[in-house]
Amino acid sequence: MITLTEEKKFPRQKPARMAKIRSLSADTEGPVRIMAIVIESSPGVSLVQDIYDNVEDAAKIIVNVEGTLTVAEKYLLIGEVTERTGPEGKELRLAASLAYNINNLDTKLYKQAIEMEDEVIRALSR
Fold first, then answer.
1. How far, in Å, are 6, 7, 9, 10 from residue 3 at the CA level?
2. How many Cβ atoms are within 10 Å of 111's Cβ, its own excluded?
3. Most buried by CB count within 10 Å: which residue of 1, 6, 27, 68?
4. How many domains does the chain have?
5. Is this prediction's pTM over 0.85?
């Protein structure tokens, strides 16, 4: 039997896990979710700093994003970690597929909800 339709498969995408920028590496697999404040911005590229980390230890990462992010605003960024060779050697970048402005979000409450979600997932997977 000959069919003229093409069978398409759409694999389920993994959920983005919450991560701190300093825990990211070139070996990080799957999408990640970070909460950051924009330090520098130009169309398509921004430098962001982690808002969940201690201020003294907070890491920074360059984010490739469609459009322009606003300096001093907080964003929830979801994307894949990539590695690029730059003028100072290899550097990590986040190829963001989604960027949400979260200036009005209660970040402490959000963090509690994420931690509770992790506990529920661990309890259900036993």
1. 8, 10, 16, 20
2. 14
3. 68
4. 1
5. no
